[in-house]
Design a protein that fits this description.
This protein is an alpha/beta fold and about 1100 residues long. Helix 39 (about 1000-1015) packs across helix 41 (about 1040-1050). The longest helix has 23 residues, at about 590-610.
């Protein structure tokens, strides 16, 4: 059936109809078009048919409504204005050019359109007061009459690519072609009337199009370099500390680097629901966090409630600071060990978890282990919905994690902390949606590396480089002292306020030597404790059977009572083994105490067998009761406790266990006897010898204040006694037992931030356990002695941070580390272990100074030449360069800022100072609605590589005098390759749904149960809660939720399904405080919608 209508379906498009009319209608002289929307790209598609048409007129509509609205907002009446009409049309053309596909042929078409207007090929007008929605296309001969042939097409198609039907996915349009004389005449008369009323768009008006769009080829490499920095840094350029500084209490110093961290931190907090504030120790993280907290209250409303979680040692500092900021009425405080007070609903000092809007976690690295009870409680608090949603309707809590050492020794450290505010399988990070899938292979690779005898540093760095680029960069704010000193604004700020950043010297090794007798005994001791020789071959050492009793239980029910008895026994004996080695490294005195206790405790176990009454009580200190001879009290305690605490008979254990205990006791006794013969201590001798010569040397230690750390309280007591025997009196020994009592004394004698008039010198040496490794200032001293070196790298950094703090008067920091002998190193691989842990931390976060030993060479080839350290510094350098340029060249800055997106240039590759080869390559910077941007290099083989900002900026960096060159032929192809890569990656990330295959066995079982009960639940509210629980498990938001549900279903004995539904809600889901089911269908906002080329450069190998 023949019809005059066409719809852009198949080949029946407006463009095809145009082609037919122009080719088959004779003597077309006039082509008139009346359209509501005109696109230069649409004109380009039509242009080949217009070559032989003498008169072409296009009448376009502009959005008159926006002009009327503009004038009404000013209280004025809109009057048609020719210039404003022209401006409006030109503005729409510029937008069209900006949004056009990035293709050479389209650009040629746009330039052809400009040329056609300029040379008079076409006339174009815009109507100043009518919203033109009609679409009419008129084809006529020069002498048009009722006997001539013509045509008019009308309908819904605008003169755009989708309207013409020239794309694969074009608009569905409804058009009709009419050829009757009366129809053509009527259309022509209406067109003529509107044409007379309209405003001419003159060649002069259109000539600016090329210059004001990305088609401008006059931009210089330097201008596009600055444009890249402007686009990348965004609002960070316009940093104005005034509003932030207003939040700062009067007595606090106004430090630009702190204010800027607060601005950036608040932005990350709102964008990602949380972030890490990981400035190195002593830069004032508490103050920055308090600024952000106060800003949050202002922005979110005075109903906001904040919970601050911290170790007990930091309580006074937090409460004082929050009171100074006048936000104490909005803030609750809880120590890391008391989180149950927030959850149990019994403590009237704490609101319910859903009342809190913002959680601040200090020393957040303490929550790196997701299997701990403490972690479970904290995640329950952070993942509970807010009772009062934010202004945008968001019910998620905001979480700030403070730690100078967020990574201790494993990729899982940072992963678990991220899960306090992000979901495992539904993250909102720019480049990672499924964090679980991202981290799992990296953790496996790291675990394999740990098993190797020789540490492969480059492979360790590669793992943490991946974590840094994809995860750490968007979520972490971290500055080192070097960053601040090398930033012009920051350094000027601290100098003006008299703040000193001391130089941290490389660690000084303090090594002590053994004579032959001691060397042999030390070697024998290590072999006995570790059960291996100097080549790590097994030897007949201690079995630590005192701590392996449950492994030898006969009855299977008894064994099940304790779980995996083999694993538990191995873990306990490994702990004891490690403890003894650490004690040996700490001091011979502490080791002697420990080995004697092991000897005594092993004898206790033998005695219990002989008396046929064996106490196995994990919840009771059995040895304490036996040492006191209080067996009756022990028995009573075990009966009270019950459960795992049991009294067994000798016959309940496997034959041979007693013999193993007796053999172990002989070996331990031998060691006790041998050490009893040692009446000298070379480590102590070395310490006392170096005390005045090195540690208290006036040149190194002008304040004569000294801080000495040891992991062992017994070593601290020992040193205190020996120092007093040596006539040194001003000694303060601190442990957990007296820290709180001595707090003020410590501050007045060692804290440089106390009012100088209050300074005291009653004590010059502080001997302390790890209890003073955090939450205290000791920076009247500038010398740290690690009498023993902790195996935990975090503790090492925290120790040094006590003296390396704002307010110190010292110009240098000195660290002295006492080291175990080479024998010890060969056995337990302490150096290798410590470097491995430090490498994990440094590769991800960077650090100011060497912590462990001088084996860590400073520089790019050393451990501290890690990429992030380098990039954090250089990112700030680029930002400072841009700010300086703006200050000195505000007019140029504003002009460059307005350079249109998609601007591009070609340069000679030889002008580029970068280790990245850019010969015949293109670099493209792409942004999208929710993505901060990504940089791609498309090489000469059209392979796309992702670049970091710093690497891209180094390539774009240009001198003022450099000139661009003509774009190469492959430019558009390479840029489009990058764009396609971005959208492909985006599609992969965005459309990847969580499948059951990704879930754990526990999660799969729970989901099956939930799906069943959702299907039969009659209570609509509980049904929604079950649906919400199902969604949360798929997203991986709550670590314990599937475990708690699995436990409920396993223990359930109720047969009535509706009662089960109510029970699962009351026993499990109710305490989750799900506000409603509104987030069940909530989609992750697409971070990749509307990708846009920001800027591109091609490089010619010439």
């Amino acid at each position: 059936m023949s019809t005059k209508f066409f719809t852009n379906k198949a080949d029946n498009s407006l463009l095809k109809k145009f082609e037919g009319v122009f080719k088959n209608l004779p003597n077309i002289h006039n082509f008139d078009a009346l359209v509501g929307y005109f696109r230069a790209t649409g004109y380009f598609k039509l242009r080949p048919f217009l070559n032989k048409i003498p008169e072409i007129r296009i009448l376009v509509g502009i959005n008159v409504d926006t002009l009327i609205k503009k004038y009404h907002s000013l209280g004025q009446q809109y009057l048609k204005d020719p210039q404003e009409t022209k401006d409006k049309f030109i503005e729409s053309l510029k937008l069209d050019i900006e949004k056009a596909d990035y293709k050479k042929e389209i650009e040629d078409g746009i330039l052809q359109f400009i040329s056609d207007i300029t040379n008079g090929k076409i006339q174009i007008k815009a109507h100043p007061e009518k919203n033109l929605h009609a679409k009419i296309y008129i084809f006529k001969p020069k002498e048009f009459n009722e006997y001539s042939t013509g045509s008019v097409i009308t309908g819904s198609s605008n003169l755009t690519e989708p309207g013409l039907g020239s794309r694969d996915k074009s608009n569905y349009e409804f058009n009709v072609e009419l050829r009757d004389f009366d129809d053509i005449r009527f259309a022509s008369e209406e067109f003529e009337m509107l044409w007379v009323e309209s405003v001419d768009i003159l060649p002069a008006d259109i000539s600016s199009l090329e210059k004001d769009t990305y088609l401008n080829d006059e931009f210089t490499p330097f201008e596009l370099y600055m444009k890249l920095l402007i686009e990348y840094f965004g609002q960070r350029i316009e940093y104005d500390p005034t509003n932030i500084d207003l939040l700062l209490p009067e007595k606090y110093k106004k430090l630009t680097y702190q204010s800027e961290a607060a601005i950036e931190g608040y932005e990350k907090l709102m964008r990602y629901n949380g972030f890490f504030l990981a400035d190195v120790v002593g830069l004032g993280k508490t103050i920055v966090a308090s600024i952000i907290a106060k800003k949050f209250i202002y922005e979110n409303g005075y109903h906001s409630k904040i919970l601050i979680v911290y170790p007990p040692a930091l309580e006074e500092n937090w409460k004082t600071t929050i009171k100074d900021f006048h936000i104490e009425n909005s803030t609750s405080f809880v120590t890391t060990g008391s989180l149950h007070k927030v959850l149990d609903g019994k403590n009237l000092n704490y609101p319910n978890p859903n009342e809190y809007d913002l959680i601040i976690i200090d020393e957040a690295h303490k929550f790196r282990n997701d299997t701990s009870n403490m972690y479970e409680k904290l995640q329950t608090i952070t993942k509970t919905d807010r009772r009062i949603p934010g202004s945008n309707g968001d019910t998620r809590k905001k979480v700030m994690l403070l730690s100078a050492t967020p990574l201790n020794n494993h990729p899982a450290d940072i992963e678990n902390q991220i899960y306090l505010f992000q979901d495992k399988r539904n993250a909102t990070l720019p480049s990672v949606k499924d964090l679980q899938a991202f981290f799992t292979p990296l953790k496996d690779e790291y675990d394999d590396l740990k098993k190797e005898k020789v540490l492969n540093i480059s492979k360790v760095k590669a793992i943490f480089d991946k974590i840094r680029d994809k995860v750490i960069e968007p979520l972490v704010i971290r500055r080192t002292r070097t960053d601040i000193e090398t930033n012009a604004d920051f350094s000027k700020d601290i100098k003006a306020q008299g703040i000193i950043f001391p130089k941290i010297n490389p660690p000084n090794e303090v090594r002590y030597e053994f004579d032959d007798q001691l060397s042999l005994l030390f070697d024998f001791t290590i072999s006995m404790i570790t059960s291996m020789d100097e080549n790590r071959n097994p030897t007949d050492g201690f079995g630590f059977y005192r701590y392996r009793a449950i492994e030898f239980l006969i009855d299977e029910e008894d064994r099940k009572r304790y779980g995996d008895v083999m694993s538990i026994s191995n873990r306990l004996s490994a702990i004891m083994k490690t403890l003894l080695v650490k004690r040996l490294e700490s001091s011979f005195y502490a080791f002697g105490k420990s080995i004697n206790r092991l000897n005594q405790n092993t004898q206790h176990m033998i005695n219990m067998f002989e008396e046929d009454k064996v106490f196995v009580a994990p919840d009771v200190d059995v040895n304490k009761y036996l040492n006191e001879g209080n067996e009756d009290g022990l028995e009573e305690k075990i009966h009270d406790k019950g459960g795992n605490n049991q009294i067994y008979k000798a016959e309940d254990f496997k034959e041979g266990f007693l013999e193993l205990l007796i053999e172990d006791k002989k070996k331990i006794q031998q060691l006790v006897d041998e050490w009893a013969k040692i009446e000298y201590d070379p480590k102590l001798d070395k310490f006392l010898f170096d005390l005045n010569r090195e540690f208290l040397n006036k040149k190194k230690n002008p304040s004569k204040k000294l801080v000495i750390f040891s992991e062992s309280k017994e070593t601290i007591d020992y040193l205190e006694d020996k120092l007093k025997e040596a006539g040194i009196k001003k000694i303060l020994a601190i442990s957990a037992a007296n820290r709180k009592e001595k707090q003020k004394t410590i501050q007045l004698n060692f804290d440089a931030n106390q009012d100088k008039s209050d300074w005291k010198n009653e004590f010059n040496i502080v001997l302390t356990t790890e209890v003073l490794a955090e939450g205290i200032n000791l920076h009247r001293s500038n010398v740290i002695i690690n009498y023993d070196v902790p195996w935990n790298s975090t503790r090492l950094m925290q120790r040094i941070g006590r003296v390396n703090r704002l307010g110190t008067e010292a110009g240098e920091i000195h660290v002295f580390n006492f080291y175990p002998s080479d024998k010890s190193d060969n056995q337990i691989k302490l150096t290798n272990t410590a470097i491995k842990k430090l490498q994990a931390f440094h590769s991800a976060f960077g650090e100011d100074s060497q912590i462990y030993s001088q084996l860590e060479e400073v520089g790019e080839a050393g451990l501290y030449g890690s990429k992030l350290k380098e990039e954090i510094n250089e990112t700030l350098v680029f930002l400072q360069e841009l700010r300086d340029f703006k200050k000195k060249n505000i007019n140029k800055f504003n002009r460059i800022k307005n350079i249109p997106k998609k601007s591009r240039i070609a340069r000679k590759a030889k002008n580029i100072d970068s280790f990245i080869n850019v010969d015949d390559a293109s670099i493209t910077y792409i942004k999208s609605a929710g993505h901060p941007g990504v940089f791609y290099k498309t090489d000469s083989n059209d392979i796309v590589h992702e670049l970091t900002f710093v690497n891209a900026a180094k390539i774009f960096k240009a001198e003022l005098k450099e000139k661009g060159t003509k774009l190469p032929k492959n430019h558009h192809k390479q840029v489009n390759k990058a764009l396609v890569h971005f959208t492909t990656i985006a599609k992969t990330i965005e459309t990847k749904n969580v499948t059951k295959a990704q879930l754990s066995s526990t999660e799969k079982k729970v989901i099956g149960n939930l799906e069943f009960f959702i299907g039969i639940a009659e209570d609509e509210f509980i049904k929604k809660q079950l649906q919400r629980a199902l969604d949360e498990i798929y997203k991986g938001s709550h670590r314990q939720l599937p475990n708690q549900l699995a436990k409920f279903f396993k223990n359930n004995t109720e047969n009535d399904p509706q009662k089960v539904v109510h029970n699962v809600f009351n026993e499990v889901l109710k305490k989750m405080n799900f506000s409603d089911a509104s987030r069940i269908k909530q989609q992750r906002i697409s971070l990749f919608s509307n990708p846009q080329i920001v800027i591109s450069e091609s490089f010619i190998d010439a």
